[in-house]
């Protein structure tokens, strides 16, 4: 019996996924595998996947296939957070960090999964508790970002309830190892292996004397408080605005180990993808 009896699809809202879906449906039909998709997504493109709601997709699928780019992969990871279901990322656009394969590799990738010739790589998430007690989960980053015209982000940082630093910046970014190549990287943060269990605190365009990033253990609790001198801030979760914060608001951030599992087939390493995506080259003064 195949290790996969049900496959769930998560689709990019705009990119053409017909070729990929046809490949998956053909592979599944030959093996008696059921293909599910979110009702609004499969209805939009009129594919033959069985429409289900989010809860059914999460609970009934042995494998999730994300068709899009890194944003679609992040959304898929948030959907399945806390469950061991592996996620195969299929790239439909420009090169990303999270998607494992391109569409033309899909058939061989599904066969490799069927034959157990793959690894499921754990990805850590961060969970932020908001002032109203609500929690949000991010696999790349949570960022407190200044709103144009409202002044700087003035934020006090405490670790394990011990005050450490106050930043005045355009944003204060809390990033996972996975997210170290995203917003955090553009703010000057380091590239961190996705296998490292810890998270970064990185100021963007800091106006304070201390402008360095912090690296925290996955066992440590981070508290961020909006200071009286701060303007109103947007709280972004994996790049989408979740809420707004004002002076006195406080959020706490903790790590969630192995919150999602990503299929790896061994075709390319994180460092190869990073070199290509970030166009990493050596010094022009040093010959290879």
UniProtKB/TrEMBL annotation:
Which annotated residues bind NAD(+)?
70-71, 75, 140-141, 170, 181-186, 205
- Kinase as a keyword of this entry, yes or no, is yes
Q: Point out the gene that encodes the protein.
A: nadK
**Gene3D superfamilies referenced in this protein's UniProt entry, alphabetically:** Probable inorganic polyphosphate/atp-NAD kinase, domain 1 (3.40.50.10330), Probable inorganic polyphosphate/atp-NAD kinase, domain 2 (2.60.200.30)
Family affiliation:
Belongs to the NAD kinase family.
Broad class of the protein's primary localization: cytoplasm
What InterPro entries does the annotation carry?
A: ATP-NAD_kinase_N, ATP-NAD_kinase_PpnK-typ_C, NAD/diacylglycerol_kinase_sf, NADK
Enumerate the subcellular locations listed in this protein's record, separating them with semicolons: Cytoplasm
The protein's name is NAD kinase
**Keyword Nucleotide-binding recorded:** yes
Q: What is its EC number?
A: 2.7.1.23
Q: What does this protein do?
A: Involved in the regulation of the intracellular balance of NAD and NADP, and is a key enzyme in the biosynthesis of NADP. Catalyzes specifically the phosphorylation on 2'-hydroxyl of the adenosine moiety of NAD to yield NADP.
Q: So which cofactors does this thing need?
A: a divalent metal cation
The record, for SUPFAM superfamilies, names: NAD kinase/diacylglycerol kinase-like
């Amino acid at each position: 019996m195949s290790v996969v009896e049900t496959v769930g699809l998560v689709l990019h809202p705009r990119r053409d996924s017909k070729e990929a879906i046809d490949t998956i449906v053909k592979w599944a039909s030959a093996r008696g595998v059921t293909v599910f998709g979110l009702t609004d997504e499969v209805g939009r493109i009129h594919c033959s996947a069985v429409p289900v709601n989010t809860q059914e997709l999460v609970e009934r699928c042995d494998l999730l296939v994300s068709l899009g780019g890194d944003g679609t992969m992040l959304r898929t990871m948030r959907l399945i957070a806390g469950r061991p279901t592996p996620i195969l990322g299929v790239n439909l656009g420009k090169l990303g960090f999270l998607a494992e394969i391109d569409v033309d590799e899909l058939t061989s990738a599904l066969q490799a999964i069927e034959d157990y010739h793959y690894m499921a790589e754990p990805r850590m998430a961060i969970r932020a508790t908001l002032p109203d007690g609500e929690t949000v989960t991010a696999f790349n980053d949570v960022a407190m970002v200044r709103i144009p015209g409202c002044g700087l982000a003035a934020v006090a940082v405490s670790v394990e309830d011990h005050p450490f630093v106050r930043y005045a910046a355009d944003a204060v970014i809390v990033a996972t190892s996975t997210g170290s190549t995203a917003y955090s990287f553009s703010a000057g943060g380091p590239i961190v292996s996705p296998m490292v269990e810890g998270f970064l605190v990185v100021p963007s365009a800091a106006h304070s004397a201390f402008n360095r990033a912090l690296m925290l253990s996955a066992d440590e609790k981070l508290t961020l408080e909006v200071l009286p001198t701060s303007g109103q801030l947007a709280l972004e979760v994996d790049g989408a605005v979740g809420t707004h914060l004002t002076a006195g608001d406080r959020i706490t951030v903790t790590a969630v180990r192995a919150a999602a599992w990503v299929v790896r087939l061994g075709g390319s390493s994180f460092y190869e993808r990073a070199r290509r995506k970030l166009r990493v080259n050596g010094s022009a003064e040093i010959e290879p």
